[in-house]
């Protein structure tokens, strides 16, 4: 059978290995598995959210509130914008997809950093667009600007901070860059880890209301999957000027957000203390990874997220390490597919990290 030709160039997104696979393939006991590959919050979901969900189980038979009024209100309050400035998606992933569909056809160009979130390219190729990438691994705005001036772009993606490397541009530099961009180019600011970046360094903080008031061609994306510990609920949001949001709405499937997800996010937004505590612990634990890398003489990228990317030296291959860790029940991300001899580890809980260091010691010793 013949399919849409643009799909020939599309790769399938490689998700972090699921826990069940290790049980099946390596015979690791479920209780011994530590999954640090998808940047989930290791502290679990807020107890208040869990309570709320239990109460709602009996209402599953009716469709969710498709206006999503309550969650929009809560987000509008949090970010000091209007309801009309918000779109909610099944993960911010879905909004990324809407953005590309809204702007791109086969002749379109999409500009992004060389080593960034894989879905920008995957959705872009699904639309048949041409993908333009800057040269450096980490975001480099000079390179962005020179490529933009040379080729133009229908969409620009800035991942702030960047997954999978963890670096983050300063807000002032981002704004100076945006000043140079044509108003017909949609700039997507992916803030999936902004809660972490703005906690660590205020210079990195992007305030969505300020962003969209200054730049009417920008959309800010946030998610409940990371700091809010709701990856399983699949909710993300986009904040932009009304005309952008209205257009994205045309692409939305009906009832794309479940009743339980909506309620979970509303409740999660109320429990500010929980999120704050998780972020504090994240950076405390990240220090241990930095010290571990230094001790082993590995370079790492200073991270503004809940993961750290460690560059290996020529003595080790990231693929060997990832495989050896898998057999011991630890799931991390191999960055070999990005052409890097590096691994990305989500910062786990104190207890998990202690085990990771011990097993990593053993694995490195064996592979030497
Ligand atoms: C996790 C992540 C997302 C989206 O996650 P959803 O679960 O779809 O909300 C978007 N961008 C980046 C960079 C991410 O790491």
Note down, in words, how this protein is organized.
The chain has 368 residues and is of the alpha/beta class. It has 2 domains: 5-44 and 273-367, Aspartate Aminotransferase, domain 1, CATH 3.90.1150.10; 47-271, Type I PLP-dependent aspartate aminotransferase-like (Major domain) (Aspartate Aminotransferase, domain 2). The chain is 42% helix and 14% strand. The chain contains 14 helices and 13 strands. The strands form 3 sheets. It has a 7-stranded mixed beta sheet, sandwiched between helices. The protein has a 4-stranded antiparallel beta sheet with strand order 9-10-13-12. Helix 2 packs antiparallel against helix 11, helix 3 (69-79) packs parallel to helix 11 and helix 4 (92-103) crosses helix 5. The longest helix is centred in the last third of the chain and has 25 residues, at 272-296. The protein is globular and about 55 Å long. The termini are far apart. The chain binds pyridoxal-5'-phosphate. Pyridoxal-5'-phosphate (PLP) is lined by residues 39, 91-93, 117, 159, 163, 190, 192, 223, 225-226, 231, 236.
């Amino acid at each position: 059978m013949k399919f849409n030709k643009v799909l020939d160039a599309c790769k399938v997104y490689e998700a972090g290995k699921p826990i069940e696979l290790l049980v099946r393939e390596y015979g690791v006991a479920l209780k011994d598995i530590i999954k640090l590959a998808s940047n989930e919050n290791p502290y679990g979901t807020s107890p208040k959210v869990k309570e709320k969900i239990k109460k709602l189980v009996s209402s599953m038979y009716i469709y969710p509130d498709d206006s999503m009024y309550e969650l929009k209100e809560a987000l509008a309050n949090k970010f000091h914008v209007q309801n009309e400035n918000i779109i909610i998606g099944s993960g911010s992933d879905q909004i990324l997809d809407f953005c590309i569909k809204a702007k791109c056809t086969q002749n379109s160009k999409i500009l992004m950093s060389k080593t960034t979130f894989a879905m920008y390219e995957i959705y872009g190729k699904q639309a048949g667009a041409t993908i333009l990438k800057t040269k450096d691994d980490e975001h480099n705005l000079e390179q962005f600007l020179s490529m933009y001036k040379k080729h133009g772009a229908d969409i620009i993606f800035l991942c702030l901070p960047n997954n999978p490397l963890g670096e983050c541009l300063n807000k002032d530099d981002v704004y100076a860059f945006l000043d140079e961009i044509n108003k017909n180019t949609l700039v997507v600011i992916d803030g999936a880890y902004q809660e972490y970046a703005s906690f660590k360094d205020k210079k990195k903080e992007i305030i969505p209301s300020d962003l969209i008031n200054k730049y009417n061609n920008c959309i800010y994306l946030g998610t409940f999957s990371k700091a809010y510990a709701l990856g399983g609920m699949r909710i993300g949001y986009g904040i932009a000027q009304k005309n952008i949001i209205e257009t994205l709405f045309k692409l939305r499937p009906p009832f794309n957000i479940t009743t339980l997800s909506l309620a979970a996010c509303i409740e999660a937004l109320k429990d500010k203390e929980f999120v704050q505590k998780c972020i504090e612990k994240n950076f405390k634990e990240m220090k241990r990874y930095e010290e571990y890398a230094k001790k082993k003489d590995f370079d790492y990228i200073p991270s503004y997220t809940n993961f750290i990317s460690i560059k290996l030296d020529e003595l080790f291959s990231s693929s060997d390490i990832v495989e050896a860790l898998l057999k011991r029940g630890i799931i991390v991300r191999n960055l070999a597919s990005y052409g890097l001899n590096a691994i990305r580890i989500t910062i786990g809980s104190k207890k998990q990290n202690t085990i990771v260091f011990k097993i990593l010691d053993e694995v490195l010793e064996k592979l030497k």
